[in-house]
Amino acid sequence: MPLETVAVIGGGAWGTALAQAAAMAGRVVRLVVRTAEQAEAINRAHVNATALPGQALLAGVVAADRLERADIVILAVPAQSTRTLLSGLEPDLLAGRPVVLSAKGLETGTLARQSEILFDMAPEAVPYVLSGPSFAADLAAGRPTAVTLAGDDASATSDLAAALAGPSFRPYAADDRIGVEIAGALKNVYALACGAVDGASLGASARAALIARGYAEMARVVTAMGGSAHTLTGLAGLGDLTLTCTSVQSRNYQFGMALGAGRSTEEIVASGAKLAEGVATAPVAAALAKSLQIDTPLIDAVDAVVAGKADIATIVAGLMSRPLKREI
Ligand SMILES: NC(=O)C1=CN([C@@H]2O[C@H](COP(=O)(O)OP(=O)(O)OC[C@H]3O[C@@H](n4cnc5c(N)ncnc54)[C@H](OP(=O)(O)O)[C@@H]3O)[C@@H](O)[C@H]2O)C=CC1
Ligand SMILES: O=C(CO)COP(=O)(O)O
Q: Where's the active site on this chain (predicted)?
C-alpha cells in the first residue's frame, strides 16, 4: 500500500508541526484547516501565524479547507473534538487507511480513548496512536524529537514509522495502543499536578516524588485497562511524563502553575489559557479509575483541584497523611 500522501487534520500547533515533519520526511502533505481563509493565509505566508507564529513552513506543506484522498490521515484536533471532527468526514476517505491519532486525552462522558472514538465513527479505518515527548515548536523547527507510534500490525506500523521519519523526527514502532493512549492522556493530568506543586512553591523534591508516584499510578491504570506497564518505560510513558512535568513550555504545566498560585479553573480559562488537555481528562481519568476499582490518589487530587473542590494545602495534607505502605 502506498504511503506517499499525508493529510493532517487540525490547524493548531500540533497539526502544523506534524505536517511540517511529514514534509521533512519527503511526503506530499495537505494540512486541513477549518476555513478557506485560514488555508489561504497559511499558503500565502508559508507560516501558520495563529498556531506557530514565526515558524516558516516548508513549501511541501499545503493548506486546504477540506480532506481529500490521502494514503495516511493524521488527526490533530483536541481530544474532545475528535468525535465531532470524524462525524463530518466521509467514511470512504478513512476506510482501510492508516489513521494516526495524535490527541492526548480521554473523552468526557464516554471515558473513551481516541482509538475507541475512531472505531465508533469510522470502524473501517486502521488505527495508529502517536505519542511521546514532543513540543510542536521543537518538531516544526527540526529539533530532534522521538515518539512512539503504536499500531496493531507490526510490519505495517514499521512501514508507517519509516514513511513519517525524517532527519530530526524518529518514530519508534510499538504494538500497545492502549498503553500509549493512556500514558499520553494521563501525563497531562500529572503535568497539571507538577505545575501546581511549583506554583505553590512546594519544592523540587515534592515534584520529583509526584513524578515517581504518578508513574506508579499510571502503571496501575494502564495494566488494568489491558495495556502493558512496559510501554511506560518508553517515550510515550517516561519520556512524555518527564517532559511535560518539568517544562514551563508545557501548557498543562502552565495551567497547573496557575492553579497552584491559587487561581480557579474558571479564572484561568477566562484569562485566555491555551489548551490544557489534562483539565478535561482529570475527571474522566478519575471516573475510569473508580470504575476499574484502582487507587489513584494523584488523579483524584488533580480532579478535586481542577473542579475547585479542594485547595492545594488540603490536598497535600491529605496525600501526606495517607497510611504508610510498601512502595511496590
Ligand atoms: N502542541 C503540542 O506541543 C502537542 C500537542 N499534542 C496534542 O495535540 C492535540 C491538539 O493540540 P494543539 O494542536 O497543540 O492545540 P491547538 O489549540 O493549538 O489547536 C487545536 C486546533 O484544532 C482545531 N479544531 C478543534 N476542533 C476542531 C474540529 N472539530 N474540526 C476541525 N478543527 C478543529 C482548532 O481550531 P479552532 O481554533 O478554530 O477551534 C485548532 O486549530 C492535543 O490533544 C494535544 O495534547 C500532542 C503533542 C504535542
Ligand atoms: O504533549 C506535549 C508534549 O509532548 C505538549 O504538552 P502540553 O499540551 O502540555 O503543552
A: 187 (proton acceptor)
